[in-house]
Amino acid sequence: MRVELRVLRPGASVTTLQIDAGSADEAVEQARQQGYAVLHAKVAPTLARWTLARANSFPLGLFSDELLMLLQAGLSVVDAIETLKEKESKAQRQHLLSQLVAYLYEGQSLSQALQHFPNVFPPLYIASVRASEKTGDLPEALARYVAYQAQLDVVRKKIVSAAIYPLLLAGVGSLVIVFLLSYVVPRFSRIFEDMGGEIPFTSRLLIDWGHLVQEHGAALALGIAAFAAGLIVWLAQPATRRWIFERLTAIPSLGERLRMYQLARFYRTVGMLLRGGMPIMPSLHMTADLLQGPLRERLTQSSRQIREGAQISAAMEAYGLTTPVSLRMLRVGERAGRMGEMMERIATFYDGEIARWVDWFVRLFEPLLMAFIGVVIGAIVVMMYFPIFELAGSIQ
Asked: Mean pLDDT across the stretch 169-181?
């Protein structure tokens, strides 16, 4: 849940924070660990959660990109963040950057300063910065993280763009069906009643529906709106998304692609951490959340074998975390001592396969969806005109 806090920090004014936590007490404890004195805490309303998250989201990718450019221009870390603070127009983001600068002036390293804001800077980001501080190549670590995010965004944007047209088509088709059932059918039902005589069963259903809309239209509209709102709230729950994901993974072809998508993110993230100088075991531990359900359990088991001295490729093969291609590439990476680079190459290979499958699925799904919507609309129109066809036949 998202908890809204009114807090005070010594030497600063009262401000508002939003923290994601399991409970209000947990959010208060997180704020106190960051050095705040909590004045008031309340749980943000569920329906406003998405709006608050969007309003208060910190553009981590843009921040990293701009910080990288300033560091490459010769500025120190403190000067670079101060520059970003001065150009920032939103008060909450400016306040966050001011706190970062304050921690740096206290003598803390950048990774230590970032740890005070766990809701803004993910553990992966902090670990990358911490590893770079040991080698003195912070700009390279930031460049690696920016490239990492760019690669993830490519696949995500590919999937989103492929889903736009089918969703738009389904939305327009649904609106047409709703218009026919709520406006056209009730008016045709009056014509059928005036005609008298024998009316087919399907047309009788349309007449009954027309009566229902005329007599209880407001209640029907309210019920549909309540159902839609309840569906949105239900889909927003993490447990619901996990349940849907488990059902989707049970579908043979789709489940394999979802597995490949998870493994691609996993390999890319581990590869980035390894190239940044982080040991294999902390890298595997930090990336465990990228895998869901059985895959996460398999990673735990394979990590145990790696800790005991097994080869990475053998441990991952034993627990189904590889494909024939990735297994060969892992073995090459082990022999050449370039495991980080090879894992990123595996992720790129997976991304290409996923992109090709998405293109194929969209090309197949779009005409099927159009045909389904056409059949539904056509069936409604035929049922509306069927009595008129019969009347014309009887006249002849």
From this structure: 79
Residue 20 parent element (H or E): strand 15-20
For residue 53, the model assigns a pLDDT of 42
Q: Which residues contact 169 (CB under 8 A, 6 or more apart)?
A: 366, 369, 370, 373
The type of residue at 311 is Q
**Residue 3 β-bridge partners:** 19, 43
Give the model's confidence band at 220: pLDDT under 50 very low, under 70 low, under 90 confident, else very high.
confident
For the chain, report the end-to-end CA distance as a whole number of angstroms. Answer: 69
Is residue 347 a contact partner of residue 151, using CB atoms and an 8 Å limit? yes
Q: What is the pLDDT of residue 38?
A: 74
Distance CA 263, CA 266 (A): 5
* Ordered structural domains, the chain, with CATH: 2-56 (3.10.20), 60-121 (no CATH), 148-396 (1.20.81.30)
CA gap 48, 5 in Å, rounded: 15
Chain segment 327-366, per-residue pLDDT in tens: 899 999 888 888 888 988 888 888 888 888 888 887 888 8
Written as one letter, the residue type at 8 is: L
Enter the tokens of residue 2. 């998202």
AA letter at 108: Q
Look at the block and give the residue holding tokens 């150009």.
87
| Residues forming beta bridges with residue 2, ordered by sequence position | 20
Q: Which backbone phi and psi does 4 adopt, to 5 degrees?
A: -100, 125
- What's this model's pTM, rounded to 2 decimal places? 0.63
Cα angle 239, 240, 246; round to 5: 90
Q: What percent of the chain has pLDDT over 90?
A: 1
Q: How far is Cα of residue 224 from the mean position of the Cα atoms in its chain?
A: 27
Q: Which amino acid is at 123?
A: P
Mention every residue, 6+ apart, whose C-beta is less than 8 A from residue 140: 132
194 versus 256: the higher-pLDDT residue is 256
Q: Which amino acid, one-letter code, is at 375?
A: V
Nearest in space to 319 (alpha carbons), one of 343, 301, 293, 306: 301
Residue 172 has pLDDT above 70, yes or no: yes
